[in-house]
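ZP: hey, is the NDP complex queued? I don't see it on the tracker
AM: it wasn't, my bad. submitting now with these inputs:
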Amino acid sequence: MRRKISIFGATGSIGQSTLDLIGRAPENYDVVALTGGGNVAQLAADARKFGADVAVIADEARLPELRAALAGSQTEAAAGQAALVEAATRPADWVMSAIVGAAGLEPGLKALEQGATLALANKESLVTAGKLLMETAAKHGARVLPVDSEHSAVFQALVGEDMGAVERVIITASGGAFRDWPLERLAGASVAEASSHPNWDMGQRITIDSASMFNKALELIETREYFGIDPEKIEVLVHPQSIVHALVGFQDGGLMAHVGPPDMRHAIGYALHYPTRAKLPVERLDLARIGQLEFSDPDPKRYPALRLAYDVMARGGLSGAVFNAAKDMALDRFMAGQIGFTQMADVVKATLDQLLPDDGLIDAPMTLDNLRQAAHLGQSTAQNVTPR
Ligand code: NDP
């Protein structure tokens, strides 16, 4: 039977990998919606190729361009945040949430409200509004499947297991671009240097977040929100080869590791075909050739972002929305050349120090309005704090 699918963030790295898988068996899918942020050419080309019902570009100013690019096709053109949300209300069986940043939350919620299976790459949704997302899924009998490689790995290691027997969850980190740099060089690291990842081929923002380990910080919170595991049971292990994605430790001492190639099409394909395992076009690992797998504890001086994630988990409430917004603003400031690489963590820490003691907004109910306010506060504070 053909499945109806939509891809939010279709023009990005995860979106393109998803389309790569869909394109290998197009007879199995009806594409409902494809969306992009500003890349009209890619969006229109894919909408034509896959015969999408609707293509949405987030940047409203690009609507005439999108209309022109889709002229004569069967695809409707739309633009703006409201159109993104509307596209998510169109019935679909499976929806990929791969918009980068907080903009991915609302379409994800709408997809869950109509009962779709949500393949969640947009980790920011879980970090900012994990409780709301999981409650919405439960209320509408919908399912959220993790796409982040570490969380897909934990999910796979937990199949058939009793959560009560889980002692700890370990997510691995490659260590990013600066794993082996002397600490004193980090302050002067450039945007270009931070934008190259040793193992994974990803979008620029997540690649820089890997170098700072803000990406892993988000993933710690994501692990807590997705699996409901206490923060003290979640650990990060530096593993330069990026072959073991996560490990789950059980109370009998057993440790289940998920081992796979550093190719997002594995996690995407697992979510696409769940609960079955389909044949996927990813590398088959030759462990004898790899020879050695290394593991070490993350150095807190090199990766201060991890500590901040534990502070946010301890605080709870809307602190994830503040954290994510502050992290995004710090990243914007680094990419604009306004602050240095190591000052990103200073900016986020100063923002949390200022905002988390507040017991008003942070403890307010998790509604979209309150989340927006918390994010706005995190963003504006992070924009104005002077880093050390
Ligand atoms: P990319 O930057 O490559 O792609 C992001 C997508 O979001 C693009 O389609 C982009 O459009 C769109 N977009 C950007 N801003 C907006 C906006 N304001 N409104 C609507 N759409 C927007 O990111 P990735 O594919 O790397 O990452 C996507 C998500 O998946 C992120 O949350 C990331 O953390 C997560 N993830 C990514 C992994 C990876 O390997 N890449 C691994 C695990 C998780 P356009 O390009 O047209 O501007």
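AM: back. Residues 9-15, 36-39, 58, 98-101, 103, 121-124, 148, 200, 202-203, 205-206, 264 surround NDP (CB under 6 Å).
ZP: great, adding it to the tracker
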